[in-house]
Protein 1
Amino acid sequence: MAHFIELHQNDKDNTPILLNVDWILNVGSNVHGSTINFAIEKFRGTDSYAGTQSLEVSESYSTIKEFLGC
């Protein structure tokens, strides 16, 4: 079963997002919070492909580590 954590995008509205922790590849610190790289799978008709995407969030690296139980 998927486990989600709530984070906030580093945008003007501090938009909340839910992220499946099973898809997180790595987390890095930046000056505004953290950058999360996660796996994605896209479907187009009968074709699909996997890739990665990055997201900047306002939570600190240490906060995300706590959410993940590290």
Protein 2
Amino acid sequence: MKGKRKAVIVITGRVFALMVIVFLVRFISSNQYRSQIPDIPDSYSLSVAVKEQLSQAFTKAKRVPSADNLGMLGMAYHSSANYEQAAECYHLAIQRDESAWIWNYYLGYLSIEMGNADAIVENFKSVIDKDPDMDLACYYLGEEYKNLRDYELAEMLFGKITGTKNENLVPKNPTRYDYFPLSTYAMFQLSRIYF
């Protein structure tokens, strides 16, 4: 009887110690990201609604620095024209979840706005590596190659898009209406290269 009791106590103690170790490791790794989250800038040009949006996203990311929360904070910074803070948040989100393509996509789009050609290529290549069917990333990467005068790579990427078979599929609740499928824009870019 005493042997069983002792075995139960030892097993319970080991399980508890393991739980404490797991908790400490998760806390320390999360704390590493918490300390890198950029602070909200003191800007008088931000409206009350934007400040509130940034504050809520900042609090959520500080509380639980998951890739999604860090990325959403980056999106809030991005939409309020705080590009340096947005880039930092996107980088943290990418570090937190390297398999998700969405944060590379947003960082690539931010790089387009900032005119950083190397970052555009790097991020959209990463998106395509993670999700080869992401035609919009192919399009933006093709545009950047065209701007860099690397016409062969641009032609290959635009050609991949024009060969897409499911171009007429429209989502059930689209957030953006476009009059032409992406392949039409890709064909236009191809014609500009050929011209």
